[in-house]
Amino acid sequence: MKRFADPHEALKQVFGYDHFRGLQAQAVAAALEGRDALVLMPTGGGKSLCYQIPALVKDGLTVVVSPLIALMQDQVESLAEVGVRAAFLNSTQTSEDAMRVRREVRAGEIDLLYVAPERLLTAGMLDFLDTVKVALFAIDEAHCVSIWGHDFRPVYGELAILRERWPSVPRMALTATADERTREEIVGRLLVQPDELVASFDRPNIYYSVVEKRNVKDQLLRFIRNRHPGECGIVYCLSRANCELIAAHLEAAGINALAYHAGMLPEDRAQRLARFQREEDIVMVATIAFGMGIDKPNVRFVAHADLPKSVEGYFQETGRAGRDGLPAEAWMAYGLNDVMNQNRFIDQSDADDNWRRLQRQKLDAMLGYAETCECRRVRLLAHFGEASKPCGNCDNCRRPPKMIDALTEAKMLISCIWRLQQKSGMSFGATHVVDVLLGAKTEPILRHGHDQVSTYGIGTGHTKQQWRSIVRQLIAQHILWVDTENFSVLRLGEKANAVLRDEIAVRVRASVAEDGGSANRSGAAEALHLTGRAKRLFEALRRWRAAEARASGKPAYLIFTDRTLAQISKKHPRREEDFDCIQGLGRKKIERYAPDILRITAETLDD
């Protein structure tokens, strides 16, 4: 492909867009003018174009540092579809394939080369890059460089060698998730006096909701059946075992579900990832080993079956929903055991005290989001330093939670925990404490004589589920805490004495039924506001796209997204020139697919 003299020409001819979005133009200008840049855009915000356009304009090779093999392959395949010369070097290739790529790079036949940080930092790769003209280094998922980030990878810190070895080559660090401390560390380690381009973190098309965890397998099944039947989604779990159990439960109920985690053989993971990319109705049940860099635009929901470890991780994972800008959902089930499990994970880690302190800060922020009675989007964006107003598109906005005065209940719990310790010389877990408050006659209660303490049976005004909810919220408020190093017993927190002295108010959310969520959608055509002839053509084009994807072995979205098909359906082109006004449709795709589209348009609308 020829080099373009103007970035706007490259944008139009290759990618089919008339204008840059948001901060893309500033990022492109920084690269073309030789300046470093820090680019923060939400998932789906168009970060890739920030370095892909300079690669088509600048003389030389653009090297993209990418942490995942799946991401590299997806990007290269997508670029090939629009005629861009791109390649990758990774461990999936034979030595012959790697040698061929190197020959093509030396011959100037490659515009973008994707490399994992581990491969880039080898002596052989660094020496190889010395033999070619490098125009730009683009460091994707740059938050991995920071110990404050949610996905810290020590190897990213070694990328500082790029500015030392090639000081005149500009660097662009890109990420979708970085708070202020993380941004400072990215700049300090990787960049020199960069343009800091921070877009809004908001994804207004995503509906956020949190439900009390009861039977999460059945809750997930109802959520998918009622709100996303036949649609693509991702379910995140913290453990491999839970992935397997939930995937099996969904599959047995007729959902096209697969498990994915790091305990699987690499070939099995690759096969399942390929299915996820190509099948329209698949639900992937995965650990956080899955998803970074996934570009599939029609993921309609991301669900969390367990509390995430950090707001940053949660934000990045939920950002994989609705990349096409159409309505999507971020759903999370959360309960008392999540709090205990997360605390146990931190306490049992072999890491140093600084790491544990950092993880507790992250957990506190995540608990604050899960327990908030305010707009979830406001809370989420505030974490990244962005002010906003109530969104009207989260569970708390649509159904404001009822807050109740829980000072009496807090005193009951504090008193019960203290009296059980005094009676037996030891502390007990939440289940036992709640059973005492409810006056249960369990074997442990009778064995320890806890039916004789003054707090026995004083909490019968609430159910066990309600008491567990109160305990969870008091832990989040630091009135109680879980001693995971001693069998997860409940202990009095730093604010317990203030509660007993009536120095602070205690308010908790009342238990509610599960969130009804956003209205059901009846299909992509309705979400794109298509009716009549346009809807008929849209469905015909989707059938053609599915057949084309099967024949070529490509994901359907690499051929055309639903949004592009919707534009075609509204314009119902009759000649090739009519495609020029359709956004996202570059010259290469017009040449390849226009004859089929014109034929289908005529067949569908002239019946």
From TrEMBL:
A molecular function GO annotation: hydrolase activity
SMART domains for the chain: DEXDc, HELICc, HRDC, RQC
Entry EC no(s): 5.6.2.4
One record GO biological process: DNA replication
Top-rank lineage group of the source organism: Bacteria
Domain Helicase ATP-binding: 28-196
Enzyme superclass (EC): isomerase
Start and end residues of each HRDC domain: 531-607
Cofactor dependency: Mg(2+); Zn(2+)
GO CC terms in record: bacterial nucleoid; cytoplasm; replisome
Catalyzed chemical reaction(s): Couples ATP hydrolysis with the unwinding of duplex DNA by translocating in the 3'-5' direction
Keyword terms: ATP-binding, DNA damage, DNA recombination, DNA repair, DNA-binding, Helicase, Hydrolase, Isomerase, Metal-binding, Nucleotide-binding, Zinc
UniProt-listed CDD domains: DEXHc_RecQ (cd17920), SF2_C_RecQ (cd18794)
Residue stretches making up the Helicase C-terminal domain: 216-366
Family: Belongs to the helicase family. RecQ subfamily.
Protein name: DNA helicase RecQ
Organism per entry: Sutterella parvirubra YIT 11816
